[in-house]
Specification:
Mean pLDDT: 92
Low-confidence stretches: none
CATH topology: Four Helix Bundle (Hemerythrin (Met), subunit A)
Distance between the termini: 18 Å
CATH class: Mainly Alpha
Helix content: over 70%
Strand content: under 5%
Number of strands: 0
Number of helices: 5
Largest sheet: none
Order of helices and strands: HHHHH
Shape: elongated
Length: 121
């Protein structure tokens, strides 16, 4: 499943089914969360460039939790990996690449959300 909209739809179905909520409610929650995540990934990328481990830990932890809660399954392993590396102080050369990958995934979900909102499917 490599299509961003398909990935998002799978997350929507899982979230709505598990919590028994309406699709539109989820989309509203997701829109607010993605707005925060876009801001976070911008700060995260800067922190990774500066090797600011404390900020990397804080943001990667928040992104890991938010993505897990909202079933954004492509972000979870990236944020988890970055969070673990930053806690252990290892793989600092990976901070930037993981941060960029997370940023790209968040933006992909944001684009897919726009499509889901406009199509109303």
């Amino acid at each position: 499943m490599s299509d961003p909209k398909e990935k998002l739809e799978a997350g929507i179905r899982a979230f709505c089914s598990e919590l028994g909520i309406d699709r539109e409610v989820y989309l509203n929650i997701l829109a607010a969360a993605l707005s925060d995540m876009i801001r976070d990934t911008s700060v995260l990328c800067q922190a990774a460039s500066n090797q600011d481990v404390k900020t990397i830990q804080e943001i990667s932890h928040r992104l890991k939790g938010t993505s897990a809660n909202l079933r954004l399954n492509d972000i979870i392993p990236l944020a988890t990996e970055l969070n673990e590396y930053s806690k252990l102080g290892t793989e600092s050369q990976r901070y930037e690449s993981l941060s960029v990958q997370i940023d790209q995934e968040v933006k992909m979900y944001q684009q897919a959300l726009k499509g889901a909102q406009s199509s109303g499917s």
